[in-house]
Write a sequence for this structure.
């Protein structure tokens, strides 16, 4: 009997985190249209990332010249991304603001974003970057439906405009409504965030592109070997049959 009780306790402990995760996932997440073959989208994402995010966040596992993998020349990296004079194309992506000042300003240190697409998912990022809404009760004036109580201000509000959360009593989490338009239409803003999400996924695993190419090379090699071996087999057996 004792052993059964123990087993039940263990089963409960194992199931607890699953229950906790399931109950936390109340917000619906749209599927991020990630396409790592689309280098134009990845390049637009890289531009948004360096101009809009590196002020506070770093990406220490990412070197600028790695952007060669998405088709950017050294000249493009320097000019299009407006690299400051003292930053070399071989440098890693450092935040402009130092961690201590950021902590003072926001109360939390903005985390490094190198592998954020692996700790959060692409869908989460796509939802998060479109989920900001004004909230006067927050120190920054902003809140987020995907990350409630977030300390990050909406750094792309000029593009998206200002959303408000319209809550209907007893009807779930409420609906985001665009109150003040930004410089982009909602469709164009979603496309820009898709590019940025695409880039964050690429950055989480830049070697993925190389692996894709390697996969095709390996398949090509195997097909060639098959033809050769097949021809050889025919040659060897032709006198016996
Ligand atoms: C003005 C400073 C600032 C800028 C610019 C900024 N962020 Fe943030 N970001 C923060 C802070 C602070 C946090 C921590 C929020 C918290 O934990 O409450 C954060 C958190 C995040 C998180 C959540 C990380 C996690 O898993 O907890 C993501 C993702 C993120 N930022 C992405 C971005 C992207 C993408 C950009 C560029 C479009 C950007 N941020 C620009 C300050 C900034």
């Amino acid at each position: 009997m004792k052993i059964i009780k123990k087993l039940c306790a263990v089963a409960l402990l194992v199931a607890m985190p699953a229950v906790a995760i399931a109950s936390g996932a109340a917000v619906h997440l749209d599927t991020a249209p990630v396409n790592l073959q689309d280098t134009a989208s990845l390049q637009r994402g890289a531009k948004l990332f360096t101009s809009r995010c590196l002020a506070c966040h770093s990406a220490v596992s990412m070197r600028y010249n790695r952007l060669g993998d998405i088709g950017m020349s050294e000249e493009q990296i320097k000019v299009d991304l407006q690299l400051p004079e003292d930053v070399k194309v071989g440098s890693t992506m450092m935040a402009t603001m130092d961690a201590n000042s950021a902590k003072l300003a926001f109360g939390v240190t903005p985390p490094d974003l190198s592998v954020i697409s692996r700790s959060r998912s692409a869908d989460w990022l796509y939802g998060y970057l479109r989920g900001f809404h004004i909230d006067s009760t927050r120190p920054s004036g902003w809140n987020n439906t995907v990350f409630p109580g977030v300390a990050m201000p909406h750094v792309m509000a000029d593009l998206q405009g200002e959303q408000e959360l319209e809550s209907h009593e007893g009807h779930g989490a409420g609906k985001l409504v665009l109150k003040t338009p930004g410089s982009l239409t909602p469709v164009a803003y979603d496309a820009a965030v898709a590019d940025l999400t695409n880039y964050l996924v690429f950055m989480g695993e830049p070697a993925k592109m190389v692996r894709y190419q390697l996969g095709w090379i390996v398949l090509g090699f195997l097909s060639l070997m098959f033809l050769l071996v097949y021809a050889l087999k025919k040659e060897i057996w032709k006198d016996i049959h």
About this structure: The mean pLDDT is 89. The radius of gyration is 25 Å. Residues 52-53, 55-57, 106, 108, 110-111, 113, 116, 119-120, 125, 128-129, 150-153, 155-156, 196 surround heme C (CB under 6 Å). The CA atoms of residues 103 and 109 lie 5 Å apart.
